[in-house]
Amino acid sequence: MYDKINIESKNNEVIFLLYQVALSNSSLKKTFYCQSNIPLEKGERIIVKFKGKKTIGYVLEEVNNSFNKDKDTLVFQSKLDGKSFLRSWLVDALKDAALYYNTPVGKLFDLCFPKGIENYFVEKVKFNNPLYGFEEFTLNEFINKFGERKLQQFLKDGTISVFKDFKLKVPTPRKEIYLELKADLKEVSTKRLTEKQKKVIDYLFLNKIVSYKELKELLDINKDVILQLKRKKLIEIYENIPEKIKKVVLNEEQEKAVEEVVKSKSKVLLHGVTGSGKTEVYLSVIERLNTKVLYLVPEVSLIEQTLSRIYSRFSDLKVEVYHSYLTKSQKVDVWLKAIKGQIDVLVGTRSAFFIPHNYELIIVDEAHDESYYQDGEVVYDINYLADKFPGPVIFGSATPRLDHYLKAKENNMKICKLTKRYGAHLPDVEIINMKKEEKVTYHLSKKLVDEIKNELDNSKSVMLFVRRKGYSLIMCTNCGHVVKCPSCEVALTYHKSNEKLKCHICGYETEVISTCPVCGSIMLLEKGAGTERIEKEIQNLFPARNISRVDTEVIQDYRLFQKILKGLYNGELNILVGTKMITKGLDVPTVNLIGVIDIDAIQSLPDYNSALNLFRLIVQVVGRSGRKEKGKALIQTYDPESLVLEYAVKQDVEGYYDYELKQRRALNYPPFVDIIQVVVYSNEKESGFKNAEKMVEELKKHNIQILGPTEFFIPKIRNLYLHHYIIKTNKVLKVNQTLNDILVKFPAKVSIRVNPPSLYFI
Questions:
Q1: pTM over 0.70
Q2: Residue numbers belonging to the annotated binding site for Zn(2+)
Q3: Could you say which residues bind Zn(2+) 1 here (predicted)?
Q4: Which of 90, 106, 499, 506 is deepest in the core (most CB within 10 A)?
């Protein structure tokens, strides 16, 4: 076909070029070599023959042709796309990440192409000389008109070019209207307003100008409501954002941060307390650089509020969203718009990073969040990849990554600090000593319940953080037996809503038992508290109130989460009970009280990041309070003397980080050294441990520092026994190569994780 035309020298000898290639959909961690008789572009997809079968390969780079053919050589068949859609820096970054995280390189590149994208390709032919006077043909039309021989001849002499185009609808321009509050509080008080009109006015008091789309989605209002408010001369309606409103007035710290980012054109840590206006800094940088942007958030739940802020500021930008909840066709649509250059701002979770969007600025919001670390067969960290970007990147967080903080401290990374809340004050934080405090239920203190009642009486909303989902664990009070999963060494969680016992590791579920399977006793105790149990207790205490819970059991569809948040924004939802999903960057002005129910178990986890994670969680969850006025946070604990709590209550991030870095330097832990966790799976417990021991013995021959092996924190998962060991090194690439060479000698299944956010979860 057209892509098999030979490159010939003056002596009519065929010239072969050599390329490094990664195989698509392959678990192999190595790359291959491929000879081609036509030039190939870095990053483009090609068809190669591997083990007798045609498969897709990714061209990583052209290499020196002086080599000896061996088993790592692939047979080139043809081009697939006809060009590369991946920028050179991204190809290099993905290749580096595959080596660093010891993960299948081809599967990492697969993330750049949504499934089914080939169905949208159309091969076209164009004449390179305009004197021919022909328009473009599809490839089939050209062959039908001129024949296959003419195609080959024209390709060879450069008369024509064959390229891939796409079936793509041109997006319809988005029409929007904007609302501005024109009256002050005194004037508003003289008007008779409906409930929905009051909601709009309250929301406008918090924002200078908002789009109708934002109000409609958050407050569930129609255009009649805003037209009535205009007739009452309380608001002004615009078809475009007025320039006087577009210009946001930044405080001194924000202005300095924007100038530093624009000037630096490199990597910047934006370290701002919760509610300090980091988003305004992001948007001002976008405005001043006037360039294409990739805007990353850790959770899908944060996308809507991010979009609202962008729409309110930039009415003329083409904004798209990309995340895992999109349908297959929606993902393809965004991908096609990206490669066509039809996106100005791409907002999304970590998967959006791989879309071949021609951005010139990356924003990583809540950069510390563990959601940016992808676990599983393919392992990577968005922060690592973003650091490879040859342009400005803003890593924003109230509780930064330790490695970012250390780099900034050692002047290896620019840091911009925001120390004041934007338009509000940090909330008051109170520790409730559960050893002494009077309790209304086993899990809720009287102090917390009284504060909740007070907030509700003042028409405010409340958020309650609970560490885990579900209702409780089931334990026999006679013999102490805890009901566990038959396939995993973990306790089953009781879910009262559907009367099931569930394993949150493998998904196993069964009916609730009435007698102990060990001793036959009926004395079964519901031990511990999950979101469902706290929700039930709160409902019993406040039966007339609207209460919802948010955890991964409930929120299978992110749109449901948006519906719940809408209830919070418009004041219809009184109390929200949730796991860490509610701690991540949510900006809900109606919430003035945050209650933290149970945190003690987090710090006691046998994990090098447990204390740091607890600190971050408290700082972040407390930061959800008092976005409109000074708020309050109540933290229940049986360990009120905790050093982590002491720092977190004061929101003293720098003080705690300096303490934590001192500890880690002494113990030789990240960020002063890299760690590689190797988890070994086996069918038999004893043989599995012996296998892990032999691996460690082999590794120690290479002077590698190792902790373990030992039984994994969860000894059994999905009927497999787990053991693990920890490697400490400053030479990750070298150790990974040695590790791979040694693992070939052992048939065991292993999982390798480099600098994981937690050793505990896999």
A1: yes
A2: 476, 479, 485, 488, 503, 506, 516, 519
A3: 476, 479, 516, 519
A4: 106
